[in-house]
Design goal:
The chain contains 15 helices and 27 strands. By secondary structure, it is an alpha/beta fold. It folds into two domains: 228 residues, 3-Layer(aba) Sandwich (Rossmann fold), CATH 3.40.50.300; 222 residues, Rossmann fold. The strands form six sheets. Strands 19, 20, 21, 22, 23, 24 and 25 form a seven-stranded mixed sheet that branches. A six-stranded parallel sheet has the order 2-9-1-10-11-12, sandwiched between helices. A six-stranded mixed sheet has the order 15-13-16-18-27-26. β4 and β5 form a beta hairpin. α6 runs parallel beside α8. The longest helix is centred in the C-terminal third of the chain and has 19 residues. It is globular, with a radius of gyration of 23 Å.
């Protein structure tokens, strides 16, 4: 299967837009990227604006959304900030840090950001143009619902970008949440006629049950919209792809593990949790359970507790204090529990977090958990590095994304740094006390390294848990293939190629 227009000077675009948030746009974009590259097509993902605290680092040492890094991996191309030129990292209900082309641009309120969208659209359009000159096809992902009529005039990521390209649009709907017919028909009804013309058809996601029972539904949709249903993707349990944002871990319930008699690990679900994908490899381990916790509860039933990254360290630290989590965590440590802090979680475990310039809110200092003999000062510039390190002679790789510096007053370092952004280094990272019962690090992605994971499991007295034989991208690559095969089995891929060629 080939594109008829592969030799054009500028690549065609296919846009994957949605009837709402979390309907599966990212997953379907990822599936398309892997399917298309398996057909010999040089494809790249693109999302003009992403709002997420899940981010990663490119080979150039720049920051972009994890979802587009995943999609680039699926397309077997290096991630580049042109694939996600604008990243918004929420720091409050109405404010975000703006990352423009991989570097921090500013912290802004929603209202101020709205006033700057025209200039930002221009930057995103230029990034898309650069991508189109270097690839044979661009798969554009939208954000949320493409039919938010109150926001449509200032839209820079959904239909406006599809019109600019111009791109053929596939609309994704989620049958699992119910109301799939209203999702599709209602979305089209909110669009202007020329926008509806861009929509070539639909993919229905997350179907459970006997697909034959939905055949009449497909017929109804096609008859009432005049557009094609390209296929229905069944629910799957055998594939694991990183989720785009924290909606998948919203409002976790209290957990009382023990029925399965497997040891369990708790991750505290902070209000501004970031890079929760750090723990995806732990979820795949057999013989151990992993739970996100938000409501305060007893921790003695857990083998280890993890404090994850945060986009607003002082706010989330105050939240730990005010909710009662601080006392629960400190009591857990006194009883001999194991605690790991990563990035913002590491900063919280120290004596104090200082923000003299108000990078995350009002200037000031917040008392830490006093679990590690370290002190943190938040300050620019942001550190964004691909980092190679060594732990007890075992090498690993990960990435750093943090504002500020942490000073270790006593205790021991955790990792020896080998390089940052391919430049040799010989400094140290992290802190260890209490015979490795309490440790902290700035490095994300440590569990993508099976040997490092095994060392950590051994340190929390779980030496018999078997880790994956595949590292990081190798393990994820297998999942991308499984996703592409699932996609190809249920979607009329020939029809999708046809709309691209006929656009």
């Amino acid at each position: 299967m080939v594109l008829k227009n592969k030799n054009l000077d500028i690549a065609p675009c296919l846009a994957i837009l949605g009837t709402g948030s979390d309907v599966g746009k990212s997953i379907i974009t990822t599936a398309l990227c892997r399917y298309l590259v398996r057909q010999g097509i040089r494809v790249a993902p693109f999302k003009a604006q992403n709002m997420s605290n899940n981010s990663g680092v490119t080979p150039e040492g720049l920051e972009m959304g994890r979802a587009q890094i995943v999609q680039a991996e699926a397309a077997r191309v290096p991630p580049h900030v042109d694939m996600n030129p604008i990243l918004l990292k929420p720091t409050s209900e109405i404010g975000s840090q703006v990352v423009l082309l991989g570097s921090v641009s500013e912290n802004t309120s929603a209202a101020d950001y709205h006033n700057k969208k025209e200039a930002l659209f221009g930057a995103a359009a230029e990034a898309l143009t650069r991508l189109r000159a270097n690839y044979e096809l661009i798969v554009i992902e939208g954000a949320g619902s493409c039919a938010e009529v109150n926001l449509m005039d200032s839209d820079i990521v959904n239909l406006r970008m599809a019109e600019y390209a111009p791109a053929s649009v596939i609309l994704v709907a989620d049958i699992h949440r119910g109301g799939v017919f209203a999702q599709i028909v209602g979305t089209l009804a909110c669009l202007k006629p020329h926008q509806r013309d861009l929509v070539k058809g639909f993919i229905i996601n997350r179907f459970r049950g006997d697909i034959r029972l939905f055949e009449n539904g497909i017929k109804w949709i096609e008859e009432n919209t005049g557009k094609k249903v390209f296929g229905v993707l069944p629910w799957y349990e055998h594939i694991h792809i990183e989720p785009e944002d924290s909606v998948v871990i919203e409002k976790p319930k209290q957990v009382f593990p023990g029925k399965s008699k497997e040891p369990s690990i708790a991750v505290i679900r902070l209000p501004h949790i970031s890079n929760f994908n750090d723990f995806d490899p732990l979820f795949l381990l057999e013989g151990v359970e992993v739970f996100f916790l938000e409501r305060v509860q007893d921790l003695s039933i857990f083998r280890a507790v993890i404090l994850p990254g945060s986009k607003n360290t002082r706010y989330d630290l105050t939240w730990l204090h005010s909710t009662g989590w601080t006392q629960k965590i400190k009591s857990y440590v006194k009883r001999g529990g194991y605690v790991l802090g990563i990035c913002g979680g590491y900063q919280m475990m120290g004596d104090c977090v200082h923000d003299p310039n108000g990078l995350e809110g009002h200037p000031g200092s917040t008392e830490g958990l006093d679990l590690l003999p370290v002190e943190t000062v938040l300050k620019a510039p942001k550190t964004t590095t691909l980092t190679r390190f060594s732990w007890q002679g075992t090498k690993g790789s990960g990435y750093e994304i943090h504002m500020g510096q942490t000073h270790r007053k006593s205790g021991k370092s955790l990792f020896q740094i080998v390089s940052r952004n391919s430049i040799a280094a010989s400094d140290e990272d992290g802190c260890v006390v209490n015979d490795f019962r309490v440790i902290g690090t700035y490095i994300h992605g440590i569990f993508d390294n099976p040997e490092i994971t095994a060392l950590w499991l051994n340190s929390i007295e779980l030496p018999n848990i078997k880790t994956s034989a595949l590292e990081g991208i190798e393990a994820r690559d297998k999942q991308y293939d499984l996703l592409a095969e699932h996609f190809e089995a249920h979607i009329q891929t020939d029809s999708i190629i046809k709309i691209i060629n006929h656009h």
